C-alpha cells in the first residue's frame, strides 16, 4: 500500500464520530493543561496518560495526537502572556511575544503563533507521512548491531549536546539507566535491583516514573520557591491579524518550518536549536530589525513555527525507529508499550492502521487547534490566573490519581514520592531530566539489542562492528564525545583566536537576547515587589 | 554569613555526588550477587549492563565531586512560578510531602474519596491558601468527581474504603 491510500484509510478511521470526539477532547485537554503555568507538554501527556487507559489503542492515540499539539500550543500562550517560558523551546517565543503583548499586540502575537503552529504542524506532519515510511524501508534492513549503535547515539547525543553541563547530563543518564534495570531480566528471568520486593519484579511502571519526575518533582520544586507575588498575565481578546501582520508572518512561518523539522527528526535535535536559528535568521532578514527586542512579529512567527515543525519531526524517529528524542515522545513511547505495542520499524507493518490513524489525527488535531483556540484564547488566558495553591495542589492530586490508577496499589505512590524527591533534587542541582527519562525507556531496549548482537556473533565483541551503518554511527558518537576536548586543543594551539565567525556571532546574538530577556523578567519582578 | 551559606550550598551538592556513588555501589553489589551459569545463547548475561551502569555512576560521582570542590555549580531550574531569589522554603515542602504521605497511608483503608480530600486540602493549605471552607468544599468535590469519573467514564474502580456501600 502506498502512503496516500494508507493515509486516507487513516483519515477514515480518525473521522468516525467517536474518534473525532476523542480528537476534540484531546485538543481541548491538551491546550488547557498546557496553558497552565508549570506544565510543559511532556508533563501534560504524562498526566493525561491514565485517562486513555480505558480506551482502545486507536482512540487513545488519536486523543494523544490532540494532546501533543494542544500541549505545545498551550505552552506558547503561556510564554507570550506571562513572559516566563515553561520549557526551553518556548524561551525564544517569549522574547518577542511578551514584548508584543506588553505593547498591546497580544492578539496578534497569539494569532501568528496559532496560525504559524498550524502551518508548520501541517507541513511537518505531511513530511512525517512521507519520510517515516522511507526511514522504515531503510530501517528494516538493519540488524541488532546497528540498532544498538543508533540507540546509544540517541542517548549520548541527548546527554552530551543538550543542557549546560555534560557531566550532570551523564549523571542523570546513569540514574535513568539504573532505574531501567529494576525488575526481572528479560533473558534469564533473574531479578535485578528488586531488593527482595516482589512488587518490584515487573520493573517500575514508566508512567509512574514519568509522572514522578515531571509532575511531582516539579510541584515540590515550585512549592519550595513559589513566587509570593504571581506574575501578571496580560489580558487578551480575540486573536486576529491585520494585513501587514500576515505579510510579515508567512515567510518566517515557512523558514521556521524548514529549520524545525530536520532538527526535530535528528537524534539530539530537540526544539531549542531550531527556534534559536529561526529567531536569529528572522532578525537578520527582517525589514524592521529595529523592532526586534521591542516586539517584532517575525520573532514570534518563526520560532513558533520551528517549535511545532520540530514537534512533528520528533515523531519521525519515534514512529519509524521506536526512538524517542524528546521527553514528550519518550512518554508517548511509554504509552505504546503499555498497550503491548512494540515500537520499532515493524510498527508500520504490524500496526499500520493505528499508525496511519495517528498521523491522520495529527492533521485533524492541528486544524482543530486552530478552530478551537483562536476563539477560546481569552478563556485560556484566564486559566493563567488560577491561584497557585490550587494549581500545584491539583498537579499533585492528579499525579497521585494517575500513578495510582495504573495498578491500584499504594506501593506505586511510595515510588512516586521517592522519585518525586529525586526530581526535586535534580532541579535543585541542575541535573537535566531528559537523559534520565530516556535512560529508563531506552536502557532495557539497548541491553536487549546488545545481547542479541553478541548472541549472533557467539560472544565475539567484533560483532558490534559487523554492520557498516553501526561503524558509521560509532564514528559520529566519537566525534560528539571528543568534540569539546578537540575544541579545547585547537584553542590552546591557536592563542590568538580569530574573532567569532558568522555562526558563532549568530549564536551569541540569540544568547544575548535570551539573557537580556531573562534579566528583563527578573527586573520586572523586582519592580513589582 | 554569605560566605557560610555559599560554602554550605557548595557542599550540599556533594550530596548529589554521594547519592550517585551510593547508587553505583548498590547496582554493582546487586549485579555481583546474581548467580548465572555461562550460557552460549546469552554471552552478555544479566550482569554486564549493570556493571557498566555502576561504573558510569561511580565515575560521574567522582567527577561531580571534583567539579563541585573546584567551584562548579549546577544551575537550579527556573520557571513561571519559580522565584530563585529566596532560599528553599521547607515550611511549604515538608507539609506538602506530609499530605502526600498521609494519602499513601489512607488510600487503601479509607478509600480515595477521603484520602484524596486530605491530599488536596492538605496541599492547598501547605501552599498558603487560607480560605479553609472553600478549599475543603473544592477538595471533596474533586475527590468525588474523580471517583465517579474514573468509575463511570473509564471503568477504573478506585477504592471506596470506609465509604463502601455509600458511594
Write the layout of secondary structure elements.
The complex is a heterodimer of chains A (529) and B (167).
Chain A: H1 3-14, H2 17-35, H3 41-48, H4 57-82, H5 91-139, H6 144-161, H7 166-181, E1 183-184, E2 191-192, H8 206-224, H9 243-265, H10 272-285, H11 298-321, H12 327-338, H13 347-350, H14 352-383, H15 388-407, H16 410-428, H17 434-456, H18 468-493, H19 502-528
Antiparallel strand pairs in A: 1-2
Helix pairs in contact in A: 1-14, 2-3, 2-4, 2-14, 3-4, 3-8, 3-12, 4-5, 4-11, 4-14, 5-9, 5-11, 5-14, 6-7, 6-17, 6-18, 7-17, 8-15, 8-16, 9-10, 9-11, 10-11, 10-19, 12-17, 15-16
Chain B: H1 2-12, H2 14-32, H3 48-69, H4 90-110, H5 112-126, H6 132-153
Helix pairs in contact in B: 2-3, 4-5, 5-6
What characteristics describe this protein?
A: mainly alpha, 74% helix, B: 167 residues, mainly alpha, flat
Q: Would you write up a description of this structure?
A:
The complex is a heterodimer of chains A (about 525) and B (about 170). Chain A has one domain. Chain A has 19 helices and two strands. By secondary structure, chain B is mainly α. Chain B has two domains: about 70 residues; about 70 residues, no CATH class. At the A-B interface, helix 7, helix 8, helix 15, helix 16 and helix 17 of A face helix 2, helix 3, helix 4, helix 5 and helix 6 of B.
